[in-house]
Recover the amino acids of this structure.
């Protein structure tokens, strides 16, 4: 499991097949930590960079989730477990 501390750049890159599908529609990228909304980019693009300030969460294990949602209702999601140690 990755161990993170401080401000961490999160780079979101859609795989080729998903990017091809969602670019036909407008889409947004929504970020969650422990299933709580953190931020969104309404005009989605890939690659997308987001700075996550891990100092805003307690030390320990967390789940970082990224959703890609089209305006037509399509959705893709991926999660990763990380350890925050500030």
């Amino acid at each position: 499991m990755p161990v993170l501390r401080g401000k961490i750049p999160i780079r979101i890159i859609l795989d080729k097949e998903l990017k091809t599908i969602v670019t036909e529609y407008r889409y947004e990228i929504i970020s969650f930590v422990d299933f709580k909304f953190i931020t969104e980019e309404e005009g989605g693009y890939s690659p997308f960079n987001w700075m996550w300030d891990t100092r805003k969460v307690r030390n320990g294990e967390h789940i970082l989730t990224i959703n890609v949602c089209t305006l037509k209702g399509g959705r893709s999601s991926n999660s990763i477990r990380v350890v925050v140690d500030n």
Remarks:
- Strands lie at 3-4, 7-12, 27-33, 36-41, 48-53, 60-70, 75-84.
- Residues 3 and 77 are 22 Å apart (CA to CA).
- DSSP finds one helix and seven strands in the chain.
- The radius of gyration is 13 Å.
